[in-house]
Predict the structure.
Amino acid sequence: SPLNMSIEDKMEVDNRSIYVGN
């Protein structure tokens, strides 16, 4: 993830990636 993303944004992106992956 881009270093300038906030932790909350990173968590949201990670959760979306996991959702799509499954």
